C-alpha cells in the first residue's frame, strides 16, 4: 500500500510538523500550556491531520518512532517558550509496549533543558485497560521524573473511575463532546459538574476541551474547572505563530 510506504518514509525523514493549541487558565485567560498536535506534510496530499495517520502508524508499528520524534521536538520547542508555559504531548497506548518511551523522555528533557514539570503526557483511558506491572512501573518512573500525567478525553472510555483510583493523575481533560452538549442537556451539565468535583476530590486539575463559545466558557467557569482549551481561544497553530499568541494571551 502506497500510503503505508509514504508514512514509513515520512517518519524516517521527519516530514512531520507539530501544531500547538493553547490551554488557558479559566480565571485569567492567560496561556498556561500548549498541546502538541502532530501533522504530516504529505508530498501530494498536503497537510494531513493525525486521525488519518496515527491509526496507520499504530498498525504498521512506526508509532514508537513517530511518538519519540514528537516528544523530542515538543521538548526542544517548549524550551524556547516563557518558563511558566508547559507543553502537553499525546501518547499512544502502544508506546507503553516498548522500552524506548522512558529513555526517550529522559533524553528529550536533558538535551532540551526543559524542566520536567513543564512536560505533560496525555494518556487515553485505553492505555490503562491492561494494567500490567510493566505499565504501572513505567508510569511511576515517568512521575518520579517530575513529568505530569493527564487523562485525555475523559468520559469517552470505560471504567474511568477505577482507573482514577488505581493511578493518580495530575489532570483530567473533559472530552469536548460533554462541553458541547452541556447547554442542551441538564444531564450532561450534571456529568460535567460531577467530573470536576471528582477531580478535585482526587487532587487533580481539570481542563475542559472544545470550548467554542462564551456561553460554554461561563458554564465551565462557574463549575470551577481550572483550564480551558478550544477554538474560542485559538485553533492549533504552527510553532512560528506561538510568539504572537503569547503576546495576546500571555
Ligand atoms: O490535531 P487534531 O486536533 O486533529 O487531533 C486529532 C487527534 O489526534 C486527537 O485525538 C489527538 O489526541 C491525536 N493526536 C494528535 N497529535 C498526536 C500525537 O502526537 N500522538 C498521538 N498518539 N496522538 C496525537
Ligand atoms: O488529544 P485530543 O483527542 O483531545 O485532541 C484534541 C482535538 O480536538 C484536536 O483534533 C483538536 O483540533 C480538536 N479541538 C480543539 N479545540 C476544539 C474546539 O473548540 N472544537 C472542536 N470541534 N474541536 C476542537
Ligand atoms: Mn489530547
Ligand atoms: Na481530548
Automatic annotation (TrEMBL):
Coiled-coil regions listed in the entry: none
Domain EAL residues, every copy: 1-250
Domain of life: Bacteria
Record's signal peptide: none
Protein's name in the database: Response regulator receiver modulated diguanylate cyclase/phosphodiesterase
Species of origin: Fulvimarina manganoxydans
Range within the parent protein: 361 to 610 of 622
Amino acid at each position: 500500500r502506497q500510503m503505508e510506504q509514504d508514512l514509513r518514509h515520512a517518519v524516517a525523514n521527519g516530514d512531520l510538523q507539530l501544531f500547538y493549541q493553547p490551554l488557558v487558565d479559566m480565571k485569567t485567560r492567560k496561556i498556561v500550556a500548549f498541546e502538541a498536535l502532530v501533522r504530516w506534510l504529505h508530498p501530494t496530499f498536503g497537510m494531513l491531520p493525525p486521525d488519518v495517520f496515527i491509526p496507520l502508524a499504530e498498525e504498521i508499528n512506526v508509532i514508537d518512532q513517530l511518538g519519540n520524534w514528537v516528544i523530542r521536538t515538543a521538548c526542544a520547542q517548549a524550551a524556547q517558550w516563557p518558563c511558566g508555559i508547559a507543553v502537553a504531548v499525546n501518547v499512544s497506548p502502544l508506546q507503553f509496549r516498548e522500552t524506548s518511551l522512558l529513555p526517550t523522555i529522559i533524553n528529550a528533557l536533558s538535551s532540551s533543558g526543559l524542566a520536567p514539570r513543564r512536560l505533560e503526557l496525555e494518556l487515553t483511558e485505553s492505555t490503562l485497560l491492561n494494567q500490567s506491572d510493566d505499565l504501572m512501573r513505567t508510569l511511576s518512573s515517568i512521575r518520579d521524573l517530575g513529568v505530569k500525567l493527564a487523562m485525555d478525553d475523559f468520559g469517552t472510555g470505560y471504567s474511568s473511575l477505577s482507573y482514577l483510583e488505581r493511578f493518580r493523575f495530575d489532570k483530567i481533560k473533559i472530552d469536548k463532546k460533554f462541553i458541547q452538549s452541556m447547554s442542551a442537556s441538564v444531564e450532561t451539565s450534571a456529568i460535567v459538574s460531577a467530573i470536576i468535583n471528582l477531580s478535585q476530590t482526587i487532587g487533580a486539575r481539570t481542563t475542559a476541551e472544545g470550548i467554542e463559545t462564551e456561553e460554554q466558557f461561563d458554564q465551565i467557569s462557574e463549575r470551577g474547572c481550572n483550564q480551558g482549551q478550544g477554538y474560542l481561544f485559538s485553533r492549533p497553530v504552527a510553532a512560528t505563530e506561538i510568539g504572537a499568541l503569547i503576546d495576546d494571551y500571555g
